[in-house]
## 1
Amino acid sequence: MHISRLDLQDIRSIHQARLMPGPGLNLLVGENGAGKTSVLEALHLLGYGRSFRGRVRDGLIRTGAEALQVYAEWQDAANRPRRVGLRHTGSDWTGRLDGEDVAQLGDLCAAMAVITFEPTSHALVSGGGDPRRRFLDWGLFHVEHDYLGQWRRYVRALKQRNALLKARNAGAQLDAWDHEFAEAGEPLHRHRQTYMAALLPHLQAVTEQLLPSFGIAAFDLQAGWKQSQMSLADALLLNRERDLALGHTGVGPHRADWRVDFVARPDREPYSRGQAKLVALACLLAQARQLHEARGEWPVILLDDFASELDSRHRQRVLDQLDNDGIQVFLSGVDTLPEITGKSVTMFHVEHGQIHPAS
Ligand SMILES: Nc1ncnc2c1ncn2[C@@H]1O[C@H](COP(=O)(O)OP(=O)(O)OP(=O)(O)O)[C@@H](O)[C@H]1O
C-alpha cells in the first residue's frame, strides 16, 4: 500500500498538517521535539488503534484540544483508492473507512497494515513474551480472515476461566469453560505454527541480507503448554489445582512464546542493544514480506529514530532492501542520512509541529 495523503489534527504539538507522501522513502527531518515521531504515531494509530508511546489519553491529543484526528488516503494492491479517518478523544473514538462508519476499531486496523520499528522494538527479542505474542497475532490478524474471531473467542474463555479460578469456583462451570478454552486454544496454536513456518523462509532471506554472518539455526514456537506431550484440555486438568491456588490460568496460548537462534551464536550469549534491534528489525521485515506474499500488498513501514544505535553499514542494508522491494517507508531523524543517496526520497522538514515538504 502507498499512502498518498495524510492529514493530522491535534496530535501532540501538531495542530494541523497535511502531507502528500511519496511511494518510496519519506524522510521526516527536524530538531529534537519538532514533532517527527508524532507523525509516525498518527500512522501507527491507524494501524493499531493505539500509540507506540502509551495510551492515546496519555498525551497523544494536543493539550487543550478535545480530540485528535487522522485521515489517510492510499491505493491498495488492486490500485483501488481507499480512505480511512479516525477521531479519538482519549476515551471514545469514531472511525470511517471508505466513506462508511466502522463499528470496531479492528476494522480500521485490518485495512491499514503498518509495521513499526521504534526505539523500544528490541523488546521483541530481548524482553518478555508479550511483544512476541503480539507479533504473531498481528501477522495472523492480517493474513488469516478468521483469526481475529478465534482469538476473541479464546480471550473470552480465558477471562471467564480466570474469573472462576479467582472465585475458587471449581464446579461444572469450570469444566464447561475448560472445554471452551481448549476448543478455542488448540486452533489458535495451530495457526501460530503454520504462520511461523510461513515466516521462516522470509526470515532466512532477510537475515541473509541484514546479518549475513548469523545464519538461522532454529525458529521455534513454544505452545504455552507441553503440547508435544498432551492436549490443551489435559494440560488444563493437570494444572487445575495450581491454577485454583494462583487464581489464574497458567497454561495455554496466552503463555506461548517463540525464539530465533543463530548458528553464529550457539551459546545464546545476550545481544548488544544494536544487535537486538537488528534481529527485531529482521523479524519485522520478514513479517512484511510474508504479508506481501499472502496478500500481494506491502505494509507501510515506520522507522522512528532509525539512525540511533544502528551503524551505517546496517542502515544501508536495511534501506537498500526496502528500496529494492518498493516499500513505502516513513523514517524520522534529526538529520538526513548519507545512506539515502540514489534512492527515491520525499523529504519533509518538521519544525515546532509544522510540516513542510523540502524542495
Ligand atoms: N499533548 C501534547 N500537546 C502539545 N504538545 C505536546 C504534547 N505531547 C507532546 N508535545 C510536544 O510535542 C513534541 C514531541 O514531538 P515528537 O516526540 O514527535 O518530536 P520528535 O521530533 O520526534 O523529537 P525527537 O527527535 O526528540 O524524538 C515535543 O515538543 C513535546 O513537548
## 2
Amino acid sequence: MQSLFRGQLPELVLFDLDGTLLDSVPDLALATDQMLQALRLEPAGETAVRSWVGNGAQVLVQRALTGQQDPDISSIDPDLFERAFTLFLDCYGKCSAERSQLYPGVLEYLDWLSSRDVKMGLVTNKPIRFTIPLLETFNLDRYFGLVLGGDSLEQKKPDPLPLQHAMNEFSSMPDMTLMVGDSKSDIRAAQAAGCPVVAVTYGYNHGEPVADYAPDIIVDNLLELL
Ligand SMILES: O=C(O)COP(=O)(O)O
Ligand SMILES: [Mg+2]
C-alpha cells in the first residue's frame, strides 16, 4: 500500500462505518422489520436489508417500502414515508447496538495506525445521531479526530464533499489521504475526491463485487494493509 503514498504511510485515513468497521445489518434489519410490521407490511429480512444499506436511512426506508433497490420515489405516499421514517428512527434508536459487531482486524488496524500517528476520520452515510453513540458503544470514538454522518453536510457519499471537508479539516492532500470503505459510494466518492481507496470484500455493496468499481486495493481483512 505504501507505493500509493511515496513509500510512506498516508497522512490521513478516512473510514466508512457500516460494512467496513461495523457489521450493523442485523440491527438495521431488526429496525426495518419492526417498522414494516408496525405498518402491517411484510418483513423484509436480513438478506434484503443487507443489499439496501449504504445510502443512508431515508433511502433504506424508501427501499424497504417499495422492495426495490432503485425506488421510484414519486410512487411512495409522502404520509406513509413520514410514518415509516419516524418508526424506523425510533426502532433503530432502541436497537442499534444489540446485535451489531466489529469486523475482525478492525481494532488492531486502528491501533496500528494510531500508534504511528496517522490521523483518522470517520465518514459514514448513517445519520449522525446514531453514529456517535455507536462509536462510543464500540469504543471507537477515541480514534477519530472528525466524525461526519450522512446528514452532517449538504451532500453525502458518493458525492466527494464529505471527504473534501475532512481533508480540509485535517489539512491533508488527496494524494496523502486514504479512503477505506465497503461500497461503490465510498469508492466513487474517493475517486471523485482524488484519494486512493481500499475496498473491503466482506461488507455491503448492494450484492455487487467491489472489484467492479476499480478500487486501488481490495482486502478481505484490514490487517492485510499492515
Ligand atoms: O447508513 C448507511 O446507509 C450506510 O452507512 P455507511 O456509509 O457507514 O456504509
Ligand atoms: Mg458502508
